[in-house]
Amino acid sequence: xxxxxxxxxxxxxxxxxxxxxxxxxxxxxxxxxxxxxxxxxxxxxxxxxxxxxxxxxxxxxxxxxxxxxxxxxxxxxxxxxxxxxxxxxxxxxxxxxxxxxxxxxxxxxxxxxxxxxxxxxxxxxxxxxxxxxxxxxxxxxxxxxxxxxxxxxxxxxxxxxxxxxxxxxxxxxxxxxxxxxxxxxxxxxxxxxxxxxxxxxxxxxxxxxxxxxxxxxxxxxxxxxxxxxxxxxxxxxxxxxxxxxxxxxxxxxxxxxxxxxxxxxxxxxxxxxxxxxxxxxxxxxxxxxxxxxxxxxxxxxxxxxxxxxxxxxxxxxxxxxxxxxxxxxxxxxxx
Length: 335
What we know:
About 45% of the residues are buried. The protein is built from eleven helices and 19 strands. It folds into two domains: about 5-130 and about 310-335, 2-Layer Sandwich (Nucleotidyltransferase, domain 5); about 140-305, Nucleotidyltransferase, domain 5 (2-Layer Sandwich). The chain has helices at about 45-50, 70-85, 105-120, 130-135, 180-195, 200-210, 240-245, 250-265, 265-275, 290-300, 310-320, and strands at about 5-10, 15-20, 20-30, 30-35, 40-45, 60, 65, 70, 95-100, 125-130, 150-155, 160-165, 165-175, 195, 220-225, 235-240, 280, 300-305, 335. A hairpin with a 2-residue loop joins strand 7 and strand 8. By secondary structure, the chain is α+β, with helices and mostly antiparallel strands. It is flat.
């Protein structure tokens, strides 16, 4: 019997759930590749240590962009490595995989995810829409007639969805998420201080002192970068207030996406949402004050999932453990 795995194949991180064991892997979706030969040098945590530091002969790349596959062969190699790391693959124990996809991807993009999953060694593959998995993993009662809203802010996409009766009634997928927030911080520091910092430093700033609402400000910290005028290394202090200013535009786009989805929601479901509130999932849910900002912008109570980083893979895990009894949400396809 093949093993059963659930995979949250994210732009920033990949998480794997194994039946009966829970979350067994959590690694960055980064692969280091040798330029001339195309040989994979490192994957996951090891490749992340190389990101931004590789010599000219090696490239540390993210094979997914905006939640979809940008580098087929590299993604296949990454998944194959994760399969083996979790449990090993033989011809008699290839895994049966449920993997998430952003809402609204094209049929071509869906087939690419299926193909790369099978190419990496899976016995069969089933796709599940990311907002639905996040809602299940966040504890929302997706099978009820009562409507609920989930906002999943990942690395490449922000998924805003209204769910009822086990399906997505309407959804909006925004290509504004964690990566764009990091880039906004890099650009802000560059223009404000004439200092260039790396994306890893920007991500650290976002996590440690990131704020989008005044009550969530967390002071200031010092970071190292390169002065663009002198070309020399330097140290500057960055505050939460400055991070809030840096994130204003991408966060505004996310808020507008939420408001647009709410404006398109049928009246009966709108009444449900006012009672049930909005659930935040994904790494972006941990951004300081985001729940308060959404509440102030929509008038609807907003909550953060207990483990927002794990919501999607936890949702897939619940489907696996239930034997796919949640309304037969996923259907498998073999090679």
